[in-house]
Specification:
This protein is an alpha/beta fold. Helix content is 31%, strand content 24%. The chain has two domains: 175 residues, Flavin prenyltransferase-like (Rossmann fold); 206 residues, CoaB-like (Rossmann fold, 3-Layer(aba) Sandwich), CATH 3.40.50. The two termini are 18 Å apart.
Amino acid sequence: MLLENKTAVVAVCGGIAAYKALEIVSGLKKLGADVRVMMTKSAEEFVTPLSFQAISQNPVATEMFEEPKAWEIRHISLAEAADIMVIAPATANIIGKIANGIADDMVSTTVMACKAPKIIAPAMNTNMYENPIVKSNIKKLEEFGYEVLGTGYGRLACGAFGYGRLLSADEIIDAVCHRALYKDKDLKGKRVLVTAGPTKESIDPVRYITNHSSGKMGYAIAEAARNRGADVVLVSGEVNIKPPRVEVIDVITAKEMYDAVMEKAKDCDIIIKAAAVADYRPVNAAAQKIKKNGGSDMEIKLEKTNDILAELGALYKDSEKILVGFCMETENLIENAKDKLRRKGLDFIAANCLFESGAGFKTSTNAITVIKKDGSMIELGLLDKFIAANKIFDIILGYDV
């Protein structure tokens, strides 16, 4: 399981969204984490400690000075056990305390003593969330290395509409997984360009040529790079995925992707082309919808699109830029991938077979073989796409995998 042998400390603060923390704890448990919960006194007004104890299968810490059940200082032992700490919901009060070094309850003292990565998921009234003091405190925490998530937009408990809603449990769990698994900022100072998703080439205003790419692999790569400290730009075709917190350039056609990539590549250290770009497009797209012409067949004349990878390989052949391509095949996977690696002047290529179970389009997993410029290969096997993305960066950075 994804979080097996990891300890997640979940701090629950007072607010109507406290009940949602039950789903966060449950989700982390399902991923194999050892979950320890602590609560502020205000949080106990909304959800009972017993509920969290039942789900986490661990005692819940609420008091700093309760009679010890073991010879340990509770907030210190929790802080030292944590591989990751998440505060959800995080109120304006706890954000202000942490940002200004105040440690006067179980949660704030444990946060101060904890050296593990920390994620803060705010939830509060819109006016409070937009208060300049709260914004300043959030900025301060980010400068200290805390990961402060955004908030959702919608109807709040007070009846107002706006930002301030706690993110969904899935979004928070996703952020926890990323930080728990990859703490090191080994891409800090690097600029990474990632392409993702399909391109679409118009036949007429109604129809187009495209492919089955979901963009999941490219988005996982962009997210992994950001989590490891990189400055990331993501050039994306149309996908149904919430954009990661990176610079995103939305494109539709292969020409638009080509223009965006060639412009951004100049300033990037690592370029990873995970998009499924159309190799051909109609020579002439009809201005009006093409009608059926009796029983007659129709022919569409196609022309080649720009080979973005090949042009990048030629342009930056003697540079220090690292160029990574993807190769999806239905047969002769390794032979075709090695040929593409050589022809296009790549440093690495990630090869995967469309017909392998669990791999291919629209899945959450992928089975990748990474081939290096020197011809050596690393078979990653079937992995969650986010894990696979990080393995690719491990290989790029020269780590043992």
